[in-house]
Design goal:
- It is a single chain.
- The chain is an alpha/beta fold.
- It has a single domain, classed as Spore Coat Polysaccharide Biosynthesis Protein SpsA, Chain A.
- Helices cover 35% and strands 14% of the residues.
- The chain is built from eight helices and seven strands; from the N terminus they run βαββαβαβααββααα.
- A five-stranded mixed beta sheet has the order 3-2-1-4-7. Strands 5-6 form a two-stranded antiparallel sheet.
- The protein starts with a strand and ends with a helix.
Length: 215
């Protein structure tokens, strides 16, 4: 079994290196997506590790915006051709509580399972429902956008998801099989209306991947 760790990073190269060292394993490979706003120069030295690669198509990431989704999608697209058994999406601020061997054994023992949070915004995660019911201009870099947001939501009706889906989520960190990762990419390519919908949602990175796979 081969596992690709897709790491979304934007700062602290030495901390990122500690994470890579802690997770060193013959079956682990590291793909680093570096926020496009960050300088790649200070991270380049990490290429000294034979199992470390940098995602070429970088996205700008802003908190709660679509950039985190775009970075994850870009990373998955570049990883898929290598056909890993799992893609594990983590942050550069993460650090393992178990050894690399224990983590590998866990995946081996649970081969074929997906590890992604799927709490319904209509049930156990009700506080997140406003993220999709209201219009959010989180991805707009313009002055007065919050005032404009209020006006839009006062005038326009409640937003409706374009498909008859149950909206679920909670965490934007997940580990999925090759087939599930490919399904996500194929689905997004086939449903631009879903992309448009989530680009007007707040914190959509905690919803989009879970919703696609759950339904």
């Amino acid at each position: 079994m081969r596992i690709a760790h897709l790491i979304l990073a934007h700062k602290n190269p030495l901390q990122l290196e500690r994470l890579i060292i802690a997770l060193q394993h013959a079956s682990f490979f590291f793909y680093i997506h570096l926020d496009k706003k960050a300088s790649v120069q200070q991270f380049k030295y990490l290429s000294k590790y034979n199992n470390v690669f940098f995602i070429k198509n970088r996205a700008k990431i802003y908190w709660a915006g679509y950039g985190t989704i775009q970075a994850t999608v870009n990373g998955i697209r570049e990883i898929l051709p290598a056909k890993y058994d799992y893609i594990n999406v983590i942050s550069g601020q993460d650090f393992p509580l178990k050894s690399a061997e224990e983590i590998y054994s866990f995946f081996l023992q649970n081969a074929g399972k997906q590890f992604i949070t799927c709490e319904s915004v209509k049930d156990t995660w009700r506080e997140a429902e406003v993220r999709i019911k209201k219009y959010h201009l989180i991805n707009w870099r313009i002055p007065g956008k919050f005032q404009l947001e209020k006006i839009i939501n006062r005038i326009l009706p409640e937003r409706k998801f374009p498909l008859n889906y149950i909206i679920v989520g909670r965490s934007n960190w997940f580990a999925v099989t090759f087939d599930a990762a490919k399904y996500i990419i194929d689905f997004l390519d086939a449903h631009p209306e879903v992309v448009r919908f989530f680009k007007l949602s707040w914190g959509a990175d905690e919803l989009i991947f879970s919703t696609i796979l759950y339904n």
